[in-house]
């Protein structure tokens, strides 16, 4: 979830450990951040402090602990030593994503999305489009990236780059696998010819979208290593093959 009051919470710790690990694996070099920052709301999501269980970066944990103030600019400070370039639209803390102006938001990122060997991270408040327009209006339409917007970004993605999309899952953990599968099928229907895989821990999944088999293979290898390293009880890799879904190394089914 991208709100300034959530900065440095447990989801941020997971999110940026995963992102940092991708760059440490050396198959991508550049970072493009599409934050979809929404205005703060009062709830308890941001109160979930990160916990260092030893499977994620201690340096990242320490960095979060000493950050002064809640700002997305801190992530540029953290990631800059790991990447050749860090691109986003600035001032990053002052540009809020809203439904009324969403059509004007995406062209700002058009020159960045085509970067070579880039991880293009889309960070909506909730995730991919879901439900009907009336449903999204009740929930807050600014929380979602719409299918047409995803298609727009995918069409401009470089062949040697990846899309990465934040996806919050239902609170019921029995629905997590099913919900992840549904989102993968949704992406495949929108991004024709895409290769898609998701990595999940607890109620948070990251959906990856590739254009080439070689980039997808490198991503699979990375996720397999990351999955084995994680100590999270509820972790899972799910991927699509020929319009069917196959679970890979699903911890939930072993327990």
Strand content: 15-25%
Largest beta-sheet characterization = 8 strands, mixed
Helix count from the secondary structure assignment: 10
Average residue pLDDT? 90
Gross CATH architecture? 3-Layer(aba) Sandwich
Element-level helix/strand string = HEHHEHHEEHEHEHEEHEEH
Count of DSSP strands: 10
Helix-residue proportion: 25-40%
Q: What is the CATH topology?
A: Rossmann fold
Spatial shape: globular
Which structural class matches the secondary elements? alpha/beta
Account of the protein in words:
It is globular and about 40 Å long. The protein has helices spanning 10-24, 58-66, 73-79, 102-105, 110-113, 133-139, 147-156, 176-190, 213-229, 251-254, and strands at 30-34, 85-87, 118-122, 127-128, 144-145, 162-168, 195-201, 204-210, 235-241, 244-248. The chain starts with 9 loop residues before the first helix and ends with a helix. An 8-stranded mixed β-sheet has the order 2-1-3-6-8-7-9-10, with helices on both faces. A two-stranded parallel ribbon has the order 4-5. The chain has one domain: Rossmann fold (3-Layer(aba) Sandwich). It has 255 residues and is an alpha/beta fold.
């Amino acid at each position: 979830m991208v709100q300034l009051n959530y900065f440095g919470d447990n989801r941020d710790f997971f999110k940026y450990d995963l992102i940092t690990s991708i760059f440490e694996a050396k198959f991508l070099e550049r970072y493009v951040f599409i934050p979809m920052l929404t205005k703060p709301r009062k709830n308890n999501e941001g109160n979930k402090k990160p916990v260092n269980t030893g499977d994620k970066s201690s340096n990242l944990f320490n960095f979060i602990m000493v950050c002064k103030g809640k700002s997305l600019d801190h992530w540029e400070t953290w990631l800059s030593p790991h990447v050749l370039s860090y691109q986003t639209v600035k001032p990053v803390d002052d540009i809020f994503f809203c439904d009324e102006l969403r059509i004007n938001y995406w062209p700002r990122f058009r020159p960045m999305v085509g970067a070579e060997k880039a991880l293009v991270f889309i960070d909506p408040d909730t995730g991919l489009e879901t439900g009907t327009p009336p449903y999204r209006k009740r929930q807050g339409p600014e929380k979602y990236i719409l299918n047409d917007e995803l298609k727009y970004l995918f069409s401009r993605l470089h062949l040697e780059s990846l899309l990465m999309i934040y996806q919050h899952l239902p609170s019921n953990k029995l629905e997590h696998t099913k919900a992840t599968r549904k989102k993968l099928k949704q992406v495949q229907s929108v991004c024709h010819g895409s290769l898609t895989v998701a990595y999940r821990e607890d109620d948070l999944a990251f959906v990856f979208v590739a254009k080439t088999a070689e980039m997808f293979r490198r991503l699979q290898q990375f996720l397999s290593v990351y999955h084995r390293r994680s100590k999270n009880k509820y972790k899972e890799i799910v991927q699509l093959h020929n319009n069917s879904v196959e679970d890979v190394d699903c911890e939930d089914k072993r327990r």
